[in-house]
């Protein structure tokens, strides 16, 4: 009798493990740059409708922070980065299948304020008054792009003492929207979705194009779903959403 009970318990345990594995396969985990939050949010219901049995879990943050989480073992199936450098590092370290990496969007930097300004970008930045929100220049793609752009224009050193640093693109936008800073340097896509900031003008481009690449995990638990979401993102529907939310298509060269 004890042998029968023991066998039954073992069978139930194995069945439970099988069910757990099946549930894991039904989950699609995406690590996505914070600046993509609204665009991806627009595509979520489209994906859920075509994949009703797949649970979609999205982790937003700075691309550099997301890469660090991936390197520390955080589970993910698809990485949507605002930084080609972070994608390359993740692929070189074996976390991303390099053959799946594809650019799906580009962005630009703009200077924004909480009110209308008639001056151009350079005049506003050279004016000694007013605080400016920017991304962390040593760890956040937005901040790295910002410093590169302002260095190229010979403006970075002049801003010493005026800068307020944000942990990601959305925090920088929030600083300006809330009035915590007078100005902010953000992505054009973030300015496009905010009704609380005015664009003063576009910053000059730095040496590094702001390209958003996508890549599937080398050890993805749900490769099929990751491929399906990537197909949605790079298809006609996804391309239109990308443009609607202020991004540019990589081939536009704008």
TrEMBL record:
InterPro entries: ModA, ModA/WtpA. Keywords: Metal-binding, Signal. Pfam families: SBP_bac_11. It comes from the Bacteria. The keyword Endoplasmic reticulum does not apply. Residues 1-22 form the signal peptide. The keyword Metal-binding applies. PROSITE patterns: PROKAR_LIPOPROTEIN (PS51257). Belongs to the bacterial solute-binding protein ModA family. This is Molybdate ABC transporter substrate-binding protein. The lineage of its organism: Bacteria, Bacillati, Bacillota, Bacilli, Bacillales.
């Amino acid at each position: 009798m004890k042998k029968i009970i023991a066998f039954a318990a073992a069978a139930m345990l194995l069945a439970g493990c099988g069910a757990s594995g099946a549930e894991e396969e039904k989950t699609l985990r995406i690590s996505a740059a914070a600046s993509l939050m609204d665009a991806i949010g627009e595509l979520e219901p489209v994906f859920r409708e075509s994949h009703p049995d797949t649970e979609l879990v999205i982790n937003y943050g700075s691309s550099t922070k997301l890469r660090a989480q991936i390197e520390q073992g955080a589970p993910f199936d698809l990485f949507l980065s605002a930084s080609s450098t972070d994608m390359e590092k993740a692929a070189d370290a074996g976390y991303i299948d390099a053959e799946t990496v594809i650019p799906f969007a580009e962005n630009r930097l703009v200077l924004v304020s909480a009110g209308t300004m008639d001056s151009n970008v350079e005049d506003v930045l050279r004016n000694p008054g007013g605080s400016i929100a920017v991304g962390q220049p040593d760890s956040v793609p937005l901040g790295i792009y910002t410093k590169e752009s302002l260095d190229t224009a010979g403006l970075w050193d002049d801003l010493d003492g005026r800068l307020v640093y944000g942990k990601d693109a959305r925090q920088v936008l929030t600083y300006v929207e809330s009035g915590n800073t007078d100005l902010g340097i953000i992505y054009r896509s973030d300015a496009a979705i905010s009704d609380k900031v005015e664009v003063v003008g576009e910053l000059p481009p730095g040496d590094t194009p702001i390209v958003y690449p996508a890549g599937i995990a080398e050890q993805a638990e749900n490769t099929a779903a990751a491929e399906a979401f990537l197909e949605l993102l790079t298809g006609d529907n996804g391309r239109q959403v990308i443009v609607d939310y202020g991004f540019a298509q990589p081939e536009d060269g704008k």
